[in-house]
Amino acid sequence: MELKTLIRDVPDFPKKGIIFKDICPLLQNHTAFSQAVDQFARRFEGSGVDVIVGIESRGFIFGAALAYKMGAAFVPVRKVGKLPSEVIQESYALEYGNGTVEMHRDAIVSGQRVLLVDDLLATGGTMSAAVNLVKRLGGHVVGAAFLVELTFLDGRKALPGQDVVSLIQY
Amino acid sequence: MELKTLIRDVPDFPKKGIIFKDICPLLQNHTAFSQAVDQFARRFEGSGVDVIVGIESRGFIFGAALAYKMGAAFVPVRKVGKLPSEVIQESYALEYGNGTVEMHRDAIVSGQRVLLVDDLLATGGTMSAAVNLVKRLGGHVVGAAFLVELTFLDGRKALPGQDVVSLIQY
């Protein structure tokens, strides 16, 4: 199945002039959803992944399914104020201003092998911040996996030295 | 493994006087996470589930893993303004004011068998609204599954006639 045919372009979302890549049609197709998870799993088979980090909130969808498939733990990276216990933070640049993401301070044990997952690679700012959170806790970053990559935004440049994988490219 | 031992009480979150049930320690334990997903799957084995609906955003974690395990589609229910395409809405009462959740209008095909998933059953308001969204699209609700149920809040009363399942009770 050609996964790309199940990504829907939604014009002017979240604001005028932006064409949003909607992954919902892919999620609604159980064959495509399984196939995407299996492709990620095959790509990182034998990498000894202990922990999948999923980035709020669409990253939770592929991250959690992949954690189940690979027999790994699941750790969420969330926006500010959503995680209840003690956190560490990283900020990153947005088009206007800054974004901040958080992870529980006890989420990762030093030395664990960590694969990060999100739905979309755009400029790479959020993923880069999430990678820093993992490293600050002593985690070893095995790679960063995305369903969709907008190659014209050069997000890989924000993730130097990382094994970046995407299943669908624009 | 006793899943309940991996739920962490966080006092005064999100506000003073509330003891938050934090599921993160359970997610961080890959054996417990797999076990929880497998328990849900066994409970609804043979129910012919076509679609798992996960409620933003912790419901995405167990919902997506369960969709993968059961070979079902995944559909997100989200807060207002997050879904890009045409949506239907349901509102529900909160302690102060109202909450509203949305689902894509094309998310479910009439006649599909749907299992709804969230992390926590409290008063049942959000889940009841999500059940209504599914029914409005012609879906047949097979059940509502929660990792944790706060039985003293009587959330099941908000879900009359539904097959409500929880893995951990307080």
Note down, in words, how this protein is organized.
Chain A has helices spanning 24-27, 30-43, 58-70, 125-136; strands at residues 8-11, 19-22, 51-55, 73-79, 87-93, 98-104, 113-121, 140-149, 164-169. With 170 residues, the first copy, chain A, is an alpha/beta fold. Chain A has a single domain (46-169), classed as Rossmann fold (3-Layer(aba) Sandwich). In chain A, the strands form two sheets. A seven-stranded mixed sheet of chain A has the order 5-6-4-3-7-8-9, with helices on both faces. Chain A has a two-stranded antiparallel sheet with strand order 1-2. In chain A, 45% of the residues are buried. The model of chain A has no long low-confidence stretch (mean pLDDT 97). The interface between A and B is large, with 41 and 40 residues.
Short summary of the structure?
Two copies of one chain form a homodimer. With 170 residues, chain A is an alpha/beta fold.
CATH class of chain A: Alpha Beta
Portion in strands of chain A: 25-35%
Number of strands of chain A: 9
Shape of chain A: globular
Keywords, separated by commas or semicolons:
4 helices; globular; homodimer; two-stranded antiparallel ribbon; Rossmann fold; 7-stranded mixed sheet; alpha/beta; 25% helix; 170 residues
Question: What's the layout of helices and strands?
Answer:
Two copies of one chain form a homodimer.
Chain A (H helix, E strand, L loop, with lengths): L7 E4 L7 E4 L1 H4 L2 H14 L7 E5 L2 H13 L2 E7 L7 E7 L4 E7 L8 E9 L3 H12 L3 E10 L14 E6 L1
Parallel strand pairs in A: 3-4, 3-7, 7-8, 8-9
Antiparallel strand pairs in A: 1-2, 4-6, 5-6
Helix pairs in contact in A: 2-3
